[in-house]
Write a structure and sequence with these properties.
35% helix, 147 residues, 4-stranded antiparallel β-sheet, 27% strand, Jelly Rolls, alpha+beta
Amino acid sequence: MNLHQTLSTVDLFEGLTEAEIAKVASICKERQFSNNQVIAREGDAGDEFYIITEGFVEIMLGERPATAARVIVSLGSGQIIGEMALLDHGPRSASLRATSEPTVVQVIKQTDFEALCQYDARIGYIVMRNLAADLAFKLRHRNLSDR
């Protein structure tokens, strides 16, 4: 599957036209990781987010050695990680580790995404609407499971 097709399947970009998907693709930078390689560390500044295009990534909590870290979830192709970086430059809430050989992600820097949204406000509106819906779902689910 090519980048354009992959981006078309990502929930964050649902509602974008083919031309808008192409604009998003133009700001993606591909990075490859080896099995067990750390992509981002908990506590680091979040200034980019990732779209998995090949392989798998574990999201881990805790500043312990990789073998002792608590794995929260494993994500695969078409899923995004670090989307909170679109909202702020806050610290990463978890670490990310590649768990396949290779793991390929598309990286979008917050500054590049902001520039794209300045150029095309419709893209920004749709992505932020989708991000807000996703965050609301996650908060609602967490609140319900805490009861």
